[in-house]
Amino acid sequence: MLYFMQLVYKTSLFALLIGLFLPLNNHAQTQAPCGTNLGVSPWLRDFQTRINSSSRTDEVLYLPLQVHVVGTDQGTGYMSKKAVFQAFCTLNEDFVQANIQFFLANEINYIDNSDYYEHEFDGGYDMMAQNNFSNVINCYIVEDPAGNCGYFFPGVDGIALSKGCTGPNDHTWAHEVGHFLSLPHPFYGWEGQNHNYSLPAPAQWDGWEVEKMDGSNCTTSGDGFCDTTPDYLNYRWNCNGNNTSSTVQTDPNGETFVSNGSLFMSYSNSFCKSTFSDDQIAAMRANVEEVRSNLLTVPPAPEDIEIAVQEEINVITPAPGALAEGNPITLTWEPVPGATHYIVQVNPFNFFSIIFEEQVVEGTSIQVSDLQANRTHYWRFKPYNAYNTCSDFTSSASFETGITTATQELLPGESLQLFPNPSSTGQVTISLKTTTSGQANWQLIDSRGSMQQQGSFVTLAGTQDQVLDLTGLPAGLYFVHLQLDDRQSVRKLMVY
C-alpha cells in the first residue's frame, strides 16, 4: 500500500462548499447528523437508468480503509484503540448484506492538531489534503467535524467522523461510507429546508421534483432509487416500534406516509438503522467497479480473516501469579491463530475501564517498565488482523512485582511516590525521599510524549513534598519524570 500523500488544490472548491454543506433546519440537535449534501451525481443518474440490467453478484469486495485518529496539539483526546476497532467491526457488519468488507490498509495514523481536532469545513479540507493516503478510503476520527456527527468531503475524497457518534452501536460510519460510494440521502432535495409537515408537499422544492408515494416519479425525484420510499425528514428523528417516523408527511398528491427509519442513509437515530436497499447496494458495488476500481484488491484467503476464539491468555512468561523481578518486565504468550497484531493492556488492578499501559505489537511479547512495586498486576490482550477487528479481549492473567520495579536509578534509601494515584482531584503530590541535598527538576509528560508541565524544587536529605496542580488536565495516562543531580526516576500517573 502506498504511503505518499494525495495532494489536491483548493481552486474553486470553497465556492462549492456553500452548495455541498447546507445548514440543517431548526429541528437539528446541537450536533447535526451529517454535513454532506451529496446529491445525485451524473454517474449515479446514468447508473439509475440502467439499474435493472446491472450485474448483481455475490462476490465479496474487499476495500482498503485508512483510519486517522486526531488529537489536540498536546497529543490528548484520541479515541481509544479499543473503541476504534469496535466501530470498525460495526462498519463491516453493516456492509455484510452488500458483500462489501473493509480492511485496515495500514496502522492507525495519529495526528496531533487542535485545528483538525475541532474544525470547520475549511479545516477539514486542509486536514484531508495534507494527510490523505492514496488508493484507500481515508477516515478521520475527531472531536467535532464542523458541528456534525460526520461528513464526506468529495473535493478531497475524505470522511470525517465525530468520536462521539462512532461507537460500537452507531452507524454514522456506514452512513458516510455510503456517501463515499455515491449514495445521497433518501430525503435529497430537502436539505436545509423548513416545511410544515401538516401541509401537502409542493410538486417541486428548490428546483427539485418532490417524490410521490405512487412511485410515478421515483427515478427523477428524491434519491432516484425506486426501492427507497419517499422521505422529507431532514433532521434527526426517533423511530417507533415499526422503525418508521412518528411524523406523518403528505406528498403532492395528498397521500400520507411515514419515513423508513431502517435505512442507513436516513436521518433516523442509530438504533433504528439496519439496512441498505437492494438498489442502493447495487449502486455502491457498481461505483466501486466503475469509478473506484483503484480500491479493488485480491480477496484474502479465509485463514487471513478468521481469528481463533481466545478466552484466556496462553501465558509463557511470567507464569500466572509468579513473581516478576527486574525493570523492564517481559510478557510473552502463545500466538493466536489468525492474529497478526495484539492490543496488550497492563493494569495494577483487575479492571480495565482505566488503562495504565497499552501497546500494539506484531509479535507475541512486550516489555513493560516502571510498574508499581510489591503489587499484583493484571494483563490481557485483544488479537486482531487487518480484516478482523471483532475479537474480544481475553480474560486477564496476573503476576507479582518485586521491589526492583519501583526504583529507577535512585540511590539506596531514596524513593519517589505520587498520591493520590489514580487521581480524580485537581492536585497530586510528589513525595520524594532523598539522601542528599540539591535541586529536583520535574516534568509532566502525556502518553504521546508531549510535556504538559515542568518545574523544580530544592531538596534536603529526608522527605519533601511538591504539589502538582492538574486542574483542567484531560483524563488519561501521564508520566512524572524527576531529575535529581545525576539520577532520575519516572512514575506513571493516571488522571480520570
Describe the model.
The chain is α+β, with helices and mostly antiparallel strands and 496 residues long. The chain has three domains: 13-183 and 276-295, Collagenase (Catalytic Domain), CATH 3.40.390.10; 305-405, Immunoglobulin-like (Sandwich), CATH 2.60.40; 415-495, Immunoglobulin-like (Sandwich). The chain has helices spanning 13-20, 42-49, 81-94, 114-117, 121-131, 172-180, 278-290; strands spanning 61-71, 100-104, 109-112, 118-119, 137-142, 144-145, 150-153, 158-162, 204-205, 208-209, 249-250, 256-257, 315-317, 323-324, 329-333, 341-347, 357-361, 365-368, 376-384, 397-401, 415-419, 427-434, 438-446, 451-459, 462-469, 476-484, 487-495. Strands 1, 2, 3, 5, 7 and 8 form a six-stranded mixed sheet that branches. It is elongated, with a radius of gyration of 27 Å.
Task: Kindly summarize this structure in a few lines.
With 496 residues, the chain is of the alpha+beta class.
